[in-house]
Q: What sequence folds into this?
């Protein structure tokens, strides 16, 4: 049986002056997760928002929080993001001093651990941790900003991860993030992705429900 495609709405594309309204809107439209892009101005050239804002959204919706840390020293902040209501905490393999320990700490906090890979980072960097994580996030743009163009070369990495997943009978989700729209969703899903992060394509639309349905059907 084909497993269900999940949609994670990326808050980065929302109107920040109306966050409460925006998150309620995507929840009503039927997304599965709220994707929270945490940027520190060091690992990426942008600053977004921190645990205080995430925490304040907790009371507004029931959607699980999918927290994507694009920060240096992720070890230092996981506790706060867990307290702020994160269900999934994903860190970049490029930032972790000891990925295995960090994965364990995230789990101890009651969250699902994930690892993200930049477009240029090879699968070999996460291979030793594939048994320990619940999710691998393949960046399909260079992290830092919403509204960028999908990088097709990242599809090969998705296929490689999907092959390992099936061959070794592993359980992690395969999430893609950046430049996802109807066409690129189709490509990502056929390469093995089962969670699609969608920012601009969703928030810019007046027909969110329709877009979600199309994306979920693999375009
Ligand atoms: C980029 C972020 C993405 C981004 C996706 O660094 O990780 O989550 O917000 O936005 P779109 O869908 O607009 O590319
Ligand atoms: Zn993201």
A:
């Amino acid at each position: 049986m084909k497993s269900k495609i999940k949609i994670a709405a990326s808050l980065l594309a929302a109107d920040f002056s109306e966050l409460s309204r925006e998150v309620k809107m995507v929840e009503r439209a039927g997304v599965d997760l709220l994707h929270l892009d945490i940027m520190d101005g060091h690992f990426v050239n942008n600053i977004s928002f921190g645990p205080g804002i995430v925490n304040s959204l907790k009371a507004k919706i029931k959607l699980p929080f999918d927290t994507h840390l694009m920060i240096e020293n992720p070890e230092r902040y996981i506790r706060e993001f867990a307290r702020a209501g994160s269900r999934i905490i994903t860190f970049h393999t490029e930032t972790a001093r000891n990925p295995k320990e960090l994965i364990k700490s995230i789990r101890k906090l009651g969250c699902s651990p994930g690892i993200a890979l930049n477009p240029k980072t090879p699968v070999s960097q996460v291979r030793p941790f594939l048994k320990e994580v619940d999710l691998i996030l393949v960046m399909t743009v260079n992290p830092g900003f919403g509204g960028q163009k999908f990088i097709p070369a990242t599809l090969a990495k998705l296929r490689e991860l999907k092959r390992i997943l099936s061959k070794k009978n592993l359980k992690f989700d395969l999430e893609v993030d950046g430049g996802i729209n109807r066409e690129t969703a189709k490509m990502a899903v056929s390469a093995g992705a089962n969670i699609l992060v969608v920012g601009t394509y969703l928030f810019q639309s007046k027909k969110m429900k329709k877009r979600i349905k199309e994306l979920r059907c693999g375009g």
Remarks:
- The mean pLDDT is 96.
- Residues 43 and 71 are 5 Å apart (CA to CA).
- The chain has one domain: 6-214.
